[in-house]
Specification:
heterodimer; A: about 120 residues; mainly beta; four-stranded antiparallel beta sheet; B: mainly beta; seven-stranded mixed beta sheet; 11 strands; about 0% helix
């Protein structure tokens, strides 16, 4: 079964600095999707960034970028120029392409942004 | 466009009571899901529906039933609530099977 591990329960960063959140996953599949979701105190789940496993290029969305290392099964999220609004729980998630409908989540990393 | 709408947002039940969580999406998505979120556990899939008329068990289905009433609506029923079902419940939907859109969640407490 696929598993997703986020080894950092909590992280903190100074405003305007850069922080990297770690995620590793376990799968025997060769093609799949990886996601980072943000959950602010409002509880809403917000998609931050998505990566398709067959694409070599790392995904970027404005200040958010990923470092996707397929062989190492690693998918870290880098937040540049951190803002107070980035404070939230961040969840890494995996989804097999085709077939299974399951999106498997890690346990989350709580990010605090200090002014 | 409302997206994914869940009701109620909050609910308190006594052990043994039953209730149904409602979910509706207006994005014409084929797939719909129910997750529960517990502290330190991330989100775990309870049930999902790949298309109208089909439902399948997820990771933690015990104690729950679902109904895919039509393409828009996917309800989750607790027949006899237990304190272990105290959680935040999220409904989600997707069209292309990879990007999920989430509702705002239901905070359920079972006393």
């Amino acid at each position: 079964a696929q598993t997703v591990t986020q080894s950092q329960p909590e992280m903190s960063v100074q405003e305007a600095e850069t922080v990297t959140l770690s995620c590793t996953y376990d799968t025997s599949e060769s093609d799949y999707y990886l996601f980072w979701y943000k959950q602010p105190p409002s509880r809403q789940m917000i998609l931050v960034i998505r990566q398709e496993a067959y694409k070599q290029q790392n995904a970027t969305e404005n200040r958010f970028s990923v470092n996707f290392q397929k062989a190492a099964k690693s998918f870290s999220l880098k937040i540049s120029d951190s803002q107070l609004g980035d404070a939230a729980m961040y969840f890494c998630a995996y989804k097999k392409k085709g077939g299974s409908e399951k999106l498997v989540f890690g346990k989350g990393t709580k990010l605090t942004v200090n002014p | 466009n409302a997206g994914v709408t869940q009701t109620p947002k909050f609910q308190v039940l006594k052990t043994g009571q039953s209730m149904t969580l409602q979910c509706a999406q207006d994005m014409n998505h084929n797939s719909m899901y129910w997750y529960r979120q517990d502290p330190g556990m991330g989100l775990r899939l309870i049930y999902y529906s790949a298309s109208e008329g089909t439902t399948d068990k997820g990771e933690v289905p015990n104690g729950y039933n679902v109904s895919r009433l039509n393409k828009r609506e996917f309800s989750l029923r607790l027949e006899s609530a237990a304190p272990s079902q105290t959680s935040v419940y999220f409904c989600a939907s997707s069209f292309h099977r990879e990007k999920l859109f989430f509702g705002s969640g239901t905070q359920l407490s079972v006393l």
